[in-house]
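Assess this today:

___
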Amino acid sequence: MTTINWRRTLTYVLVTAIALAIAVPLAWVLFASLKRKSEFFGTPWALPEGPHLQNYADAFVTARMGQYFLTSVLVTLLGLVFVLAVSVPAAYVVARYEFRGRGLVEVALLAGLFVNVNYIVVPIFLMLVGWDRALADVLPGGFFIDNPGILSLVYAATSIPFTIYLLTAYFRSIPAEYEEAAALDGASRVRIMTRVMLPMARPALTTVILFNFLAYWNDFIIALTLLPGEGKTLQVGLLNLMTAQKAAADYGRLYAGMVIVIVPVLIFYALIQRRLIEGMASGGVKG
């Protein structure tokens, strides 16, 4: 009994230490974003004298973080729509249908899991540049480079192997009796997938949405390469803001930009954490 209590106490201490290691820097960034420029020359751990919200206004308007924020939201949402539109039916077919070459498809998907997209971003860029050159007579201003929609397609294409792999494993864990019962009632394959399988696979869908959201929202390399113009994403815009504000010693606006980047992720996770935990629990039971 003493050993169990000791292990439980150690677990609580470790969890508390990890939570503090994450919460303290976040709180420090939040408080720093509310400080005036003159306050940064005092004690860095001092609380702000008052909420100086002008930092956020400057970050949104002057530093164009508002525009970058909208671009990131658009790119992320489009990427999620594209990847789910392709991966959900593909995962269902791979999990439930017997067809020639299915083993080869699964091997290709597994191989795709080991490809780091950052290593192939230059070939992707050169390919898109070549397409723009081929269409120069029709679209002289270009189409594939500096296009948020194309960036969303690249995000979706590079995350399809992971998404299909995870959804396929979950679809296979669902008993076939549910599909058979729906088929006896006259439901088509599409209706079975949308009305029977998808509601039951909601935990897996929540998981892939969360992981893909984080990947798209936090991406820097691909967005920097494929959006070289003014329509930058939030991560690239934050780097530009960081460079400018370091030179101007206006750290309040810089930390306000960091908060703008962090808060949507925290809100999104808070909205889906319950379903994510349910998905992990159900996955553990099935395993």
Summary: The chain has one domain: 53-286. The CA atoms of residues 33 and 256 lie 5 Å apart. The first helix runs from residue 2 to 32. The radius of gyration is 24 Å.
